[in-house]
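Students often ask what a holo structure prediction actually looks like on paper. The answer is less mysterious than it sounds. You provide the chain, you provide the ligand, and the output is a string of C-alpha coordinates encoding the 3D arrangement of the protein together with zinc ion.
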Amino acid sequence: MKNEFFMHRCLQLAEMGRQEVGNGAMVGSILVREEKIIAEGYHKKFGESHAEVELLKKYDLQIRSKDILYVSLEPCCHTGKNPPCTEIILERGIKNVVVGMLDPDPRVSGKGIAALRAAGVHVIGPILPTECGWLNRGFVSVRTKGRPWITLKSAKATNGKIANEDGSPLKITSDDQNVWNHTNLRAKHDAILVGVQTIINDDPILDTRLALGLNAYCPWRIILDPQLRIPRIAKVLNDNNAHKTIVITSKENLDRASDIQSNGAMVIAVAKNADVFDWNGLWSALLSPQGNDFNGLTSILVEGGSRTWEVFKKAGMVDMEVNLVSL
Ligand code: AOF
Ligand code: ZN
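The corresponding C-alpha coordinates follow.
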Protein backbone atom coordinates (compact mmCIF):
# COMPACT_ATOMS: atom_id res chain seq x y z
CA MET A 1 0.00 0.00 0.00
CA LYS A 2 2.75 2.42 0.99
CA ASN A 3 4.60 1.72 -2.24
CA GLU A 4 1.48 2.41 -4.30
CA PHE A 5 0.84 5.61 -2.35
CA PHE A 6 4.33 6.92 -3.12
CA MET A 7 4.10 5.77 -6.75
CA HIS A 8 0.97 7.88 -7.18
CA ARG A 9 3.03 10.94 -6.29
CA CYS A 10 5.51 9.90 -9.02
CA LEU A 11 2.61 9.76 -11.50
CA GLN A 12 1.48 13.24 -10.47
CA LEU A 13 4.98 14.57 -11.07
CA ALA A 14 5.22 12.70 -14.38
CA GLU A 15 2.05 14.42 -15.62
CA MET A 16 3.79 17.78 -15.25
CA GLY A 17 5.96 16.89 -18.24
CA ARG A 18 3.00 16.45 -20.58
CA GLN A 19 3.45 18.16 -23.95
CA GLU A 20 7.05 19.02 -23.02
CA VAL A 21 8.68 15.62 -23.45
CA GLY A 22 8.06 15.28 -27.21
CA ASN A 23 8.15 11.66 -28.30
CA GLY A 24 9.60 10.59 -24.92
CA ALA A 25 8.07 9.33 -21.69
CA MET A 26 6.48 11.29 -18.86
CA VAL A 27 8.29 10.09 -15.74
CA GLY A 28 8.25 11.11 -12.08
CA SER A 29 10.58 10.12 -9.26
CA ILE A 30 10.82 10.66 -5.50
CA LEU A 31 13.32 9.82 -2.76
CA VAL A 32 11.81 8.54 0.47
CA ARG A 33 13.53 8.45 3.87
CA GLU A 34 11.74 7.02 6.91
CA GLU A 35 8.44 7.27 5.03
CA LYS A 36 8.89 10.94 4.14
CA ILE A 37 9.50 12.37 0.71
CA ILE A 38 12.83 14.20 0.82
CA ALA A 39 13.32 14.95 -2.89
CA GLU A 40 11.31 14.98 -6.12
CA GLY A 41 12.06 15.18 -9.80
CA TYR A 42 10.42 14.64 -13.17
CA HIS A 43 11.33 14.48 -16.84
CA LYS A 44 10.77 18.12 -17.67
CA LYS A 45 11.59 18.45 -21.32
CA PHE A 46 12.60 16.48 -24.40
CA GLY A 47 16.36 15.93 -24.37
CA GLU A 48 16.76 17.12 -20.78
CA SER A 49 17.58 15.04 -17.70
CA HIS A 50 15.53 11.95 -16.95
CA ALA A 51 13.38 12.06 -13.82
CA GLU A 52 15.75 10.22 -11.46
CA VAL A 53 18.71 12.29 -12.58
CA GLU A 54 16.75 15.52 -12.20
CA LEU A 55 16.01 14.43 -8.63
CA LEU A 56 19.59 13.43 -7.87
CA LYS A 57 20.92 16.71 -9.27
CA LYS A 58 18.66 18.61 -6.89
CA TYR A 59 19.42 16.31 -3.95
CA ASP A 60 23.19 16.36 -3.69
CA LEU A 61 23.45 15.24 -0.04
CA GLN A 62 24.52 11.80 1.15
CA ILE A 63 22.12 8.94 0.34
CA ARG A 64 21.52 6.51 3.21
CA SER A 65 21.29 2.74 2.80
CA LYS A 66 17.62 2.63 3.80
CA ASP A 67 16.54 5.46 1.47
CA ILE A 68 14.17 4.34 -1.29
CA LEU A 69 14.08 5.77 -4.82
CA TYR A 70 10.66 5.53 -6.49
CA VAL A 71 10.41 5.98 -10.24
CA SER A 72 7.31 5.52 -12.40
CA LEU A 73 9.29 4.01 -15.33
CA GLU A 74 12.08 1.47 -15.09
CA PRO A 75 15.41 3.34 -15.03
CA CYS A 76 17.14 3.26 -18.40
CA CYS A 77 20.43 1.45 -18.96
CA HIS A 78 21.31 2.79 -22.41
CA THR A 79 23.01 5.93 -23.65
CA GLY A 80 20.56 8.04 -25.67
CA LYS A 81 20.38 11.80 -25.40
CA ASN A 82 21.22 11.12 -21.75
CA PRO A 83 23.63 8.77 -19.99
CA PRO A 84 22.15 5.61 -18.40
CA CYS A 85 20.16 6.36 -15.24
CA THR A 86 21.17 2.99 -13.77
CA GLU A 87 24.81 4.14 -13.59
CA ILE A 88 23.97 7.34 -11.77
CA ILE A 89 21.77 5.42 -9.32
CA LEU A 90 24.68 3.09 -8.57
CA GLU A 91 27.22 5.93 -8.37
CA ARG A 92 25.11 7.74 -5.79
CA GLY A 93 24.88 4.60 -3.64
CA ILE A 94 21.12 4.05 -3.82
CA LYS A 95 20.32 0.63 -2.40
CA ASN A 96 16.54 0.43 -2.83
CA VAL A 97 14.48 1.17 -5.92
CA VAL A 98 10.73 0.79 -6.54
CA VAL A 99 9.66 0.78 -10.19
CA GLY A 100 6.16 1.56 -11.54
CA MET A 101 6.33 -0.16 -14.93
CA LEU A 102 8.84 -1.76 -17.29
CA ASP A 103 10.21 0.47 -20.04
CA PRO A 104 8.71 -0.71 -23.38
CA ASP A 105 11.74 0.71 -25.21
CA PRO A 106 13.55 -2.38 -26.54
CA ARG A 107 16.88 -0.86 -25.51
CA VAL A 108 15.74 -1.15 -21.87
CA SER A 109 12.69 -3.45 -21.28
CA GLY A 110 13.80 -5.32 -18.17
CA LYS A 111 17.52 -4.75 -18.64
CA GLY A 112 17.45 -1.64 -16.42
CA ILE A 113 16.05 -3.59 -13.48
CA ALA A 114 18.43 -6.50 -14.18
CA ALA A 115 21.47 -4.17 -14.18
CA LEU A 116 20.48 -2.70 -10.81
CA ARG A 117 19.86 -6.13 -9.29
CA ALA A 118 23.15 -7.46 -10.64
CA ALA A 119 24.88 -4.61 -8.82
CA GLY A 120 23.19 -5.54 -5.53
CA VAL A 121 20.34 -3.01 -5.50
CA HIS A 122 17.07 -4.22 -3.98
CA VAL A 123 14.47 -3.58 -6.71
CA ILE A 124 10.71 -3.97 -6.22
CA GLY A 125 8.31 -3.84 -9.17
CA PRO A 126 6.84 -3.20 -11.59
CA ILE A 127 4.20 -2.37 -8.96
CA LEU A 128 1.62 -0.36 -10.96
CA PRO A 129 2.04 -1.40 -14.61
CA THR A 130 -1.55 -0.62 -15.59
CA GLU A 131 -1.76 2.87 -14.10
CA CYS A 132 1.74 3.85 -15.19
CA GLY A 133 1.14 2.36 -18.65
CA TRP A 134 -2.13 4.28 -18.97
CA LEU A 135 -0.46 7.61 -18.21
CA ASN A 136 2.19 6.80 -20.80
CA ARG A 137 -0.11 5.08 -23.31
CA GLY A 138 1.21 7.34 -26.05
CA PHE A 139 4.84 6.50 -25.35
CA VAL A 140 3.99 2.78 -25.06
CA SER A 141 2.15 2.87 -28.40
CA VAL A 142 5.05 4.60 -30.16
CA ARG A 143 7.60 2.15 -28.77
CA THR A 144 5.53 -1.00 -29.37
CA LYS A 145 3.47 -0.17 -32.50
CA GLY A 146 5.48 2.58 -34.15
CA ARG A 147 2.49 4.93 -34.16
CA PRO A 148 0.86 7.29 -31.65
CA TRP A 149 -2.06 6.41 -29.38
CA ILE A 150 -5.20 7.52 -31.23
CA THR A 151 -8.52 8.50 -29.68
CA LEU A 152 -11.45 9.19 -31.99
CA LYS A 153 -13.95 11.71 -30.67
CA SER A 154 -17.22 12.24 -32.40
CA ALA A 155 -20.40 14.08 -31.49
CA LYS A 156 -23.88 13.40 -32.78
CA ALA A 157 -27.19 15.13 -32.24
CA THR A 158 -29.98 12.84 -31.04
CA ASN A 159 -31.33 12.80 -34.62
CA GLY A 160 -27.95 11.43 -35.76
CA LYS A 161 -26.85 14.64 -37.48
CA ILE A 162 -23.32 15.99 -37.13
CA ALA A 163 -23.84 19.22 -39.14
CA ASN A 164 -26.61 21.22 -40.80
CA GLU A 165 -27.64 20.36 -44.38
CA ASP A 166 -25.48 23.19 -45.74
CA GLY A 167 -22.42 21.96 -43.79
CA SER A 168 -22.58 24.80 -41.26
CA PRO A 169 -21.85 23.86 -37.63
CA LEU A 170 -24.60 22.48 -35.47
CA LYS A 171 -24.30 23.01 -31.72
CA ILE A 172 -24.37 19.42 -30.52
CA THR A 173 -22.58 19.11 -27.21
CA SER A 174 -23.56 20.96 -24.05
CA ASP A 175 -21.22 23.34 -22.23
CA ASP A 176 -20.56 20.61 -19.64
CA GLN A 177 -19.62 18.14 -22.35
CA ASN A 178 -17.26 20.69 -23.86
CA VAL A 179 -15.58 21.25 -20.50
CA TRP A 180 -15.25 17.47 -20.13
CA ASN A 181 -13.74 17.17 -23.60
CA HIS A 182 -11.21 19.95 -22.98
CA THR A 183 -10.25 18.54 -19.57
CA ASN A 184 -10.18 14.81 -20.24
CA LEU A 185 -9.59 14.46 -23.96
CA ARG A 186 -7.91 17.55 -25.41
CA ALA A 187 -5.64 18.19 -22.40
CA LYS A 188 -4.65 14.51 -22.28
CA HIS A 189 -3.38 14.23 -25.84
CA ASP A 190 -0.33 15.77 -27.46
CA ALA A 191 -2.30 16.82 -30.54
CA ILE A 192 -5.80 17.38 -31.89
CA LEU A 193 -6.24 16.34 -35.52
CA VAL A 194 -8.95 17.39 -37.98
CA GLY A 195 -9.46 17.26 -41.73
CA VAL A 196 -9.34 20.61 -43.55
CA GLN A 197 -13.08 20.47 -44.25
CA THR A 198 -13.72 20.86 -40.52
CA ILE A 199 -11.60 24.04 -40.53
CA ILE A 200 -13.52 25.34 -43.55
CA ASN A 201 -16.94 24.51 -42.04
CA ASP A 202 -16.45 25.28 -38.35
CA ASP A 203 -13.25 27.35 -38.02
CA PRO A 204 -12.50 25.71 -34.62
CA ILE A 205 -9.76 26.97 -32.24
CA LEU A 206 -8.71 23.45 -31.14
CA ASP A 207 -7.23 24.45 -27.79
CA THR A 208 -7.90 23.62 -24.12
CA ARG A 209 -9.37 26.94 -22.99
CA LEU A 210 -12.19 25.23 -21.06
CA ALA A 211 -9.99 22.66 -19.30
CA LEU A 212 -10.28 22.52 -15.52
CA GLY A 213 -7.01 22.50 -13.57
CA LEU A 214 -3.74 24.31 -13.79
CA ASN A 215 -1.95 22.16 -16.29
CA ALA A 216 -3.87 23.21 -19.37
CA TYR A 217 -1.73 23.78 -22.44
CA CYS A 218 -2.45 24.13 -26.13
CA PRO A 219 -1.93 20.79 -27.85
CA TRP A 220 -0.42 20.64 -31.33
CA ARG A 221 -3.15 21.20 -33.93
CA ILE A 222 -2.79 18.97 -36.95
CA ILE A 223 -4.76 19.69 -40.11
CA LEU A 224 -4.84 17.06 -42.87
CA ASP A 225 -4.99 19.19 -46.00
CA PRO A 226 -3.80 17.42 -49.18
CA GLN A 227 -4.72 20.30 -51.54
CA LEU A 228 -3.72 23.09 -49.14
CA ARG A 229 -7.24 24.54 -49.02
CA ILE A 230 -6.97 25.93 -45.49
CA PRO A 231 -8.30 29.53 -45.47
CA ARG A 232 -5.60 32.09 -44.69
CA ILE A 233 -7.99 33.63 -42.14
CA ALA A 234 -8.56 30.36 -40.23
CA LYS A 235 -8.31 30.89 -36.46
CA VAL A 236 -5.71 28.13 -36.06
CA LEU A 237 -3.36 30.11 -38.34
CA ASN A 238 -3.91 33.44 -36.65
CA ASP A 239 -4.44 33.06 -32.91
CA ASN A 240 -1.70 33.18 -30.24
CA ASN A 241 -1.09 29.48 -30.73
CA ALA A 242 -0.55 29.64 -34.50
CA HIS A 243 2.95 28.21 -33.94
CA LYS A 244 1.27 25.05 -32.60
CA THR A 245 -0.50 24.38 -35.90
CA ILE A 246 0.91 21.75 -38.25
CA VAL A 247 -0.61 21.51 -41.72
CA ILE A 248 0.03 18.21 -43.48
CA THR A 249 -0.12 18.50 -47.24
CA SER A 250 1.24 16.76 -50.31
CA LYS A 251 4.55 17.68 -51.95
CA GLU A 252 3.03 19.37 -55.01
CA ASN A 253 1.46 22.06 -52.83
CA LEU A 254 4.47 22.96 -50.72
CA ASP A 255 5.41 25.99 -52.86
CA ARG A 256 2.16 27.70 -51.82
CA ALA A 257 2.88 27.21 -48.14
CA SER A 258 4.69 30.41 -47.20
CA ASP A 259 1.52 32.43 -46.66
CA ILE A 260 0.17 29.82 -44.27
CA GLN A 261 3.42 29.80 -42.31
CA SER A 262 3.54 33.56 -41.77
CA ASN A 263 2.35 33.44 -38.14
CA GLY A 264 4.48 30.43 -37.23
CA ALA A 265 2.40 27.45 -38.38
CA MET A 266 4.39 24.56 -39.84
CA VAL A 267 3.62 22.92 -43.17
CA ILE A 268 4.93 19.40 -43.67
CA ALA A 269 4.74 17.39 -46.90
CA VAL A 270 3.74 13.74 -46.66
CA ALA A 271 3.43 11.37 -49.64
CA LYS A 272 -0.03 10.15 -50.58
CA ASN A 273 -1.11 6.61 -51.15
CA ALA A 274 -4.23 6.60 -53.39
CA ASP A 275 -6.38 9.35 -51.85
CA VAL A 276 -5.09 9.23 -48.27
CA PHE A 277 -1.75 10.15 -46.74
CA ASP A 278 0.70 7.30 -46.48
CA TRP A 279 0.55 6.18 -42.85
CA ASN A 280 4.27 5.45 -42.57
CA GLY A 281 5.04 8.86 -44.01
CA LEU A 282 2.61 10.52 -41.63
CA TRP A 283 4.01 8.77 -38.58
CA SER A 284 7.62 9.41 -39.49
CA ALA A 285 6.81 13.14 -39.81
CA LEU A 286 4.87 13.30 -36.53
CA LEU A 287 7.02 11.05 -34.35
CA SER A 288 10.29 12.90 -34.86
CA PRO A 289 11.50 16.45 -34.13
CA GLN A 290 10.69 18.94 -36.92
CA GLY A 291 11.87 22.25 -35.45
CA ASN A 292 9.51 24.95 -34.11
CA ASP A 293 9.97 23.28 -30.69
CA PHE A 294 8.13 20.26 -32.08
CA ASN A 295 9.95 17.20 -30.73
CA GLY A 296 7.56 14.55 -31.92
CA LEU A 297 4.34 13.42 -30.30
CA THR A 298 2.89 10.23 -28.86
CA SER A 299 -0.90 10.74 -28.79
CA ILE A 300 -3.55 12.22 -31.06
CA LEU A 301 -7.21 13.10 -30.53
CA VAL A 302 -9.01 12.88 -33.88
CA GLU A 303 -11.96 15.29 -33.70
CA GLY A 304 -13.41 15.11 -37.18
CA GLY A 305 -15.05 15.35 -39.53
CA SER A 306 -16.83 12.29 -40.80
CA ARG A 307 -14.42 11.55 -43.65
CA THR A 308 -11.40 11.78 -41.36
CA TRP A 309 -13.06 9.43 -38.85
CA GLU A 310 -13.73 6.94 -41.64
CA VAL A 311 -10.13 7.03 -42.88
CA PHE A 312 -8.76 6.34 -39.38
CA LYS A 313 -11.34 3.63 -38.69
CA LYS A 314 -10.85 1.86 -42.00
CA ALA A 315 -7.09 1.70 -41.43
CA GLY A 316 -7.56 0.34 -37.88
CA MET A 317 -5.85 3.44 -36.47
CA VAL A 318 -8.08 3.76 -33.42
CA ASP A 319 -7.27 2.84 -29.81
CA MET A 320 -10.29 4.39 -28.13
CA GLU A 321 -13.53 5.84 -29.41
CA VAL A 322 -15.58 8.45 -27.56
CA ASN A 323 -18.97 9.34 -28.92
CA LEU A 324 -20.63 12.35 -27.32
CA VAL A 325 -24.37 12.45 -27.85
CA SER A 326 -26.35 15.62 -27.25
CA LEU A 327 -28.38 15.38 -24.07
C1 AOF B 1 14.31 6.96 -17.40
N1 AOF B 1 13.82 8.08 -16.81
O1 AOF B 1 12.75 10.03 -16.90
C2 AOF B 1 12.85 8.77 -18.87
C3 AOF B 1 13.33 7.58 -19.47
O2 AOF B 1 17.04 9.87 -25.65
P1 AOF B 1 16.93 9.81 -24.17
O3 AOF B 1 18.28 9.75 -23.49
O4 AOF B 1 16.05 10.86 -23.56
O5 AOF B 1 16.26 8.40 -23.84
C4 AOF B 1 14.95 8.17 -24.18
C5 AOF B 1 14.56 6.84 -23.62
O6 AOF B 1 14.84 6.81 -22.22
C6 AOF B 1 13.09 6.56 -23.74
O7 AOF B 1 12.78 5.88 -24.91
C7 AOF B 1 12.84 5.67 -22.53
O8 AOF B 1 13.28 4.38 -22.81
C8 AOF B 1 13.78 6.27 -21.50
N2 AOF B 1 13.08 7.33 -20.77
N3 AOF B 1 14.02 6.70 -18.69
O9 AOF B 1 15.02 6.19 -16.76
C9 AOF B 1 13.12 9.00 -17.49
N4 AOF B 1 12.17 9.70 -19.60
ZN1 ZN C 1 17.11 7.30 -17.88
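The longest strand covers residues 149-156.
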